[in-house]
Write a structure and sequence with these properties.
Number of strands of chain C: 15
Helix content of chain A: over 70%
Chains: A mainly alpha (about 280), B mainly alpha (about 300), C alpha/beta (about 425)
Strand content of chain C: 5-15%
Number of helices of chain C: 18
Largest interface: A-B, 92 and 92 residues
Oligomer: heterotrimer
Distance between the termini of chain A: 46 Å
Shape of chain C: globular
Helix content of chain C: 40-55%
Largest sheet of chain C: 7 strands, mixed
Number of helices of chain A: 14
Strand content of chain A: under 5%
Order of helices and strands of chain A: HHHHHHHHHHHHHH
Amino acid sequence: MTSDNRLRDIALDILTIALLALVLLPIIWVFIASIRPNADIMTRSLIPTRVTFDHFANIFSRSDFLIALRNSLLVGAIVALCTVIIAVPAAFSLSRFTYLGRDFIGFLILATQMLPAVAVLVPIVVIIRSLGLANTLTALTFTHLALGLPIAVWMLKGYIDAVPRELEEASIIDGSSQIGAMVRITLPLIRPAVVAVGTFAFVLSWGEFILALALITSAEVKTLPLALQNLFDPYSFSWGVVMAGGVVIAAPTVLLFLLFRNQLVGGLTAGGIKG
Amino acid sequence: MTFPASESLRRPFGEVALPYALVMPAVLVALAIAVLPLLYALWLSFQDWYLLRNPQPVWGGLVNFQALFADAALWRAFGRTWIWTLGTVAVEVALALPLALLLNRDTPIARMASALILLPWVMPFVVLGYGWRFLLDSEAGPLHPVFQYLGLAGNSSILNDPTMALVIIIFISGWKGMPFMVLALLAALKSIPSELYEAAAMDGAGPVQRFTSITLPSIQNTMLIIGLVLGILAFYSFDLPWIMTRGGPQDATTILGISMFKAVFTDLRPAYAAAISVVMLAILAVVSFLSLQLRRRN
Amino acid sequence: MRHSLLAATALATTLFSAPAFAETVTFWQFSTNPNDIAAWEGIIDAFEASHEGIDVVMEIVPWSEQQQRLVTALTTGGLPDVSMLGNNVVAQFQAIGALAPLDDAFAAYDAEHGTKVADDIWPGDKGYYNLGGHWWASPIAVETRALYYRKDLFEAAGLDPAKPPQTWEELRATAKTLTEGTPDGVYGIALSTSLDYFTVHNFMSAYLGYGARMLAEDGTCGFDTPEFRAALDVYTGIALDGSTHPDAASMDGNTFQRGFLDGRYGMILMHPSLYRDLQTEKPEWLDSVDIAMVPAGPVNRSGFLGGWPLVMWNASQAKDAAGQFIMFATHGDAFKDLAIAGGFIPGSISLAQGEPWTAFPYPLFVEQLQDARPYQYPSEAIPQMGQLEVDTIQKAVQAVALGQKDIDQATTDLCADINAVLAR
């Protein structure tokens, strides 16, 4: 019976690996194409016989790509920071206080999450133009805040809810203010969640395409997803370089996600994220 | 609601204002990026604003909505968007259900696979869009000969065939969204008490019967809710069809998001585009309302 | 009176724009060809050296993206001070007030150099750039296309290399023979059916040659005629024969041009700059390349009338500096160097009549220019042209080439689309 079960588990494990490989094949292929000479890519075979980092060297020697990398890092970092700075107090307020309109405010913030970027694209483009902020990283940063902020508030609220109030109350009796108790007692306890939420905001901003496409036209303020299009220039085109660009964009996303998977999975299932 | 309000009268102002002050920045962001644009879109949709005629918007009443109802190409895009949405969700369920069942085991391989399966969901659309373009390219793409062998593609890339382009991009869209469904189904599967299966096994139920009488009823609610969430996301797609085919060939992959984008940036009609997004929002509101009703009934 | 006013303005601008702080002129340049980029870098260096206090920042915006980028910038801000522009969309952007007139810049340049720059502009360009009595663009290049063909591949396929195809029917037959008579992966002609300018650039020669016209007398769509159907039939027939790349329905002109340089096509309808590229890259079959006139239709031989000027955008905060850059870049010795390096026919008549435009292959292109006509020939330029060329005409070609519609259906739908755009 047990050996039967073991056999069944092994068979299912093998099936799992096979199916997983099939599902991830497109991604694996992108990665492999990024480290093969162009001549080998054209043979269409999967097994790499030669490995080259020329495509990456090529991409990191392009000034437009480097500028875009800097912009993406800058926007992503500021978005992550602002998301945390805004979301932590908001989550604390929604979790620890009872006040008029709290439920409505909570609903309003969550509803923002369900609003796809495409739905508000036109008014945002027109508003930002009339503010004279088009083609600035400021405008992009501000709109990217909406990508991760609502889910951040709700995830953090969940974590704060889980911290017993008594811990803070004990600190208040000892003479700290409510804010002081939050900062000294609760915040350290939810630090992993705060880091995860910041990461999440960074990742969403990093890969964002349509707002950048609609708001950014000049090369100095392009972000990475837009810079990828530049690589489709027939005079220097190679699939290897395009795939290397894709790997550069995907790498931090994948890395950060695998690092913070446990914190993020809860948030993901909590309420859908923007595509 | 009356209780905290009357209680707050007795508290000093600073204490009453504190929670509002803490939540205020988040509310401001929500207002600035969601509520204000929505109201502005509504206002804009009643303007007459065709950049080639009037550089500034002027009041146009229902002119955009009249044009919208007479726009045959937009109606076709509307129908296509429903095919796209339902197709994407169908692919998501069809891929996710067997994977979730397979991953719902407590082995190291299954745990590792549950993490790696998230990759398509995590990776940005741009990367996957260009990646798939490479895979389907007629000169370098490894998948092209496969489709040629199957008779699905000729010498030209499958992305140049209007019917197949839509089919393949719907598949990619479903493939990209599938991990989210796997994640949700896994959570639902893990919450089924194992006693149920043991009892059914005692009653002599086979694996198929156990699946239809225990597993499916326990996860169908999750499947429905997550399907709705993913469906709404699919309804508003833009990135994938834009990156892969720009809505072409012909209008084969032009869904509403692309129609709207083109209305602004190719046709120079921002107010008309705003009217399209207002209609899309109305549909989203109706669907969300229905889904909430459905949720309540379940 | 006008002159004294100008002089006063000039004096005022010299007084108030102290050269102490640098002014920046942003410039969108549309060519991604490395030779062109190097040539533009040269002219910018020369300009900055002779105009202290002005910085020119060039940004490469590919032709395939420029319309969308300009419109995005128009709606959201972020336009450059100066940009290239397709000759046929100058009217579109002028109509919405997005361009700044160049009359003052012309006058200032004439006053300084004793020239009459307006008189040196090709007659065809005048119709495009002088609208409502004002100048809105200063021409860089006039462009037309001719048929490049490979005599070695003609011989390999059993064709007479001395007899390039003279009509569209012959072109179709030759392309088919070439495809069949050359190795796999080499196609008869580099011809697109995609939503890229290359398609309409080629196809317009066919429909004008067959006697079709875009706009009827009453200003609505004039394509619903047997002439247009015949042109659409012969053009899309080339793709349906398999005589061009199988992905022609999604490939752009640059990719085809690159493919011709890589030896993958027997023929291509292209501008003179391609010859410069051939000379730079020196493929081993370079000596087998010859150039013939664009194929004729039953009614006439119509060349593509292209060209790109520099324009100044109305939103510019540095109009004076921008005007100086435009005039510098489109006249004089620096401009001549640019035109030679770019391998194009200059938009200045006097320049085009001298060296090196008297040597192969330019005279053929200059001759071809006599037959070059705008898309909407013989009607006037219209503001909607930017949309019509991209999204209606090319869509009809693509529909037939993909087997989505037959000729009649595509023609009917095309006219419905054109009339809808015109009625907006």
